[in-house]
Amino acid sequence: MGSLDKRIFECEERMVMAWEERIQVLKNVATGILYLHEGWEVKVLHGDIKACNVLLDKEMNARLGDFGLARMHDHHGQIASTTRVIGTIGYIAPEVIRTGAVSTMSDVFGFGILVMEVICGRRSIEEHKAGLIDWLMSLMVEGQLQSAVDERLKGKWGYSTEEAERLLHLGLLCSNSDPGIRPTMRQVVKMLDGEMDNTEEENMEMSLLGKVKSAAMWSKCAFPCSGYPTFDEIKMFSFNSKTSGSGSTTFPGSESEIIIVNR
């Protein structure tokens, strides 16, 4: 059947994914990432969670592919040291761009972006539009989060408004600019399966409330609320990397691939 991005962003109207299919895909991907993080003797960091790396079969079962950027390290630490960072702008966590430090939370960030893209039917970065995180945060501050749901689902397909809002909340938490606030993939899977206890739900709600308050404060300024680096910041990081070793940054299109080498 091909990749998820083709079915979400580029398919004909009659081929649009139904709500239940989207939820199943997110559950499949989340379970796969959790297995990488906790199911092996070593911790595997995928490093490039995005829609085009999610493969679908004819039954719409999802599998995470393209492990070309994956890294392995032991289970005793969260942060992996790296001398080479490659990722896709819009999916790569801000701390990876700024410091080169990758962790399980970097994958959580990418999954959060994926969740929001699947629910909204919109890419994380589109030309002449606000970034997906900032757009959703502004809608949340205004109490208009429901308007972000993919318009194609509002017709014959239908969807659960309560579930859509809950998933957008999850996506925003996973994509928090502070990796310490993001949930683990185990928490994400429990949330998707409806197995969270009241304490865990309250903690996630408090984290989201803090992010909303932060967004409300930033909305009074001329800066984005997501904490995601701008293209200028990314270019500056690449320039600094070159002065201390070697590096390159390429921007071929809206999902530009960033290659940072820092030795």
Can you describe this structure?
With 263 residues, the protein is mainly alpha-helical. The chain has one domain (2-261): Transferase(Phosphotransferase) domain 1 (Transferase(Phosphotransferase), domain 1). Helix content is 44%, strand content 11%. The chain has nine helices and nine strands. The protein has helices at residues 4-9, 19-38, 94-99, 104-120, 132-141, 161-174, 185-192, 198-218, 231-244; strands at 2-3, 43-45, 54-56, 62-64, 71-73, 79-80, 84-88, 102-103, 257-261. The strands form four sheets. It has a three-stranded antiparallel β-sheet. A hairpin with a 5-residue loop joins strand 3 (54-56) and strand 4 (62-64). The longest helix is centred in the last third of the chain and has 21 residues, at 198-218.
